[in-house]
Amino acid sequence: MRTRTFLLAVDRCCPSCGRLRDAATSLDHVNAPKPGDFTVCVDCGVLLRFTDDGLEPTTSEAMLEQCDRGVAEVLLKFRDNLLQRTN
Q: In terms of pTM, does the model score above 0.85?
């Protein structure tokens, strides 16, 4: 799957680890992230959702209910691989 990285207009910090998130990768390589979109923190692996004001933690269950199943599966696989490398 090809991706595209976007610099975020507003720097956001991960609410779990506090690390600055100043860019996000798009799976459709067209659209920048918008409120309601999901992501994974590359430092701590927590699932996040973009809001108007920043990022908020979310659960895999919420993501599976509210987002395209294919996108959710890619994000969960990415998170699982990330967590395996850091443990």
A: no
